[in-house]
Specification:
Layout (H helix, E strand, L loop, with lengths): L1 H20 L16 H25 L15 H25 L3 H26 L8 H28 L3
């Protein structure tokens, strides 16, 4: 729970600090994403954020940490690693991208790509972890958490991890 709270504060804080300290760079952070795709990104971000709360609620409050196992034999503690990677990476994107816009370098670009790649992999690990839970939770919340984790993974792995970097001017 501490990882999620502190990580969430770090993510939101990095966005707030970036927006407050660098308002002139806001449009540059979109990179080369075409104007007609911005609504897709905006809706995806909002739906992904909402989805995050559903699957995180399931993980935190509906799973018994003492009796959960995942496909590869991991136990509940695997979620700590997955969330740490997801949240640390997400909190690094804004400052790295502002740095790239201000003072581009191959090292910063590589750092952004690695960060986005790790977040994408961690979001895929959430999907796999939820799909392979044993015992498998029953009910609507589990179904919504699965759908939400897939939506979140699509945003992080595909839109942020593949599309955005391909369109970002270097």
């Amino acid at each position: 729970m501490v990882i999620i709270v502190l990580g969430g504060i770090a993510v939101l804080g990095s966005y707030a600090v970036g927006a407050i300290n660098h308002p002139s760079k806001a449009s540059a952070l979109w990179g080369g994403v075409p104007q007609h795709l911005l609504p897709v990104y905006t809706v995806s971000m909002l739906v992904s954020a909402l989805s995050y709360f559903f699957f995180t609620y399931l993980v935190l409050f509906r799973l018994d940490p003492n009796h959960v196992s995942l496909l590869w034999g991991a136990d509940y503690r695997a979620f700590f690693v997955i969330y740490a990677v997801m949240l640390i990476g997400s909190s690094l994107w804004m400052p790295l991208t502002i740095r790239m816009v201000s003072d581009p370098s191959p090292f910063i670009w590589l750092s952004i790509r690695v960060t986005l790649g790790l977040v994408g992999l961690a979001s895929a690990a959430i999907v796999i972890s939820l799909l392979t839970l044993s015992p498998r939770p029953q009910g609507w919340l589990y179904a919504v958490a699965i759908v939400g984790s897939v939506i979140y993974c699509f945003h992080c792995a595909v839109l942020d991890g593949l599309v955005w970097p391909a369109l970002f001017p270097r």
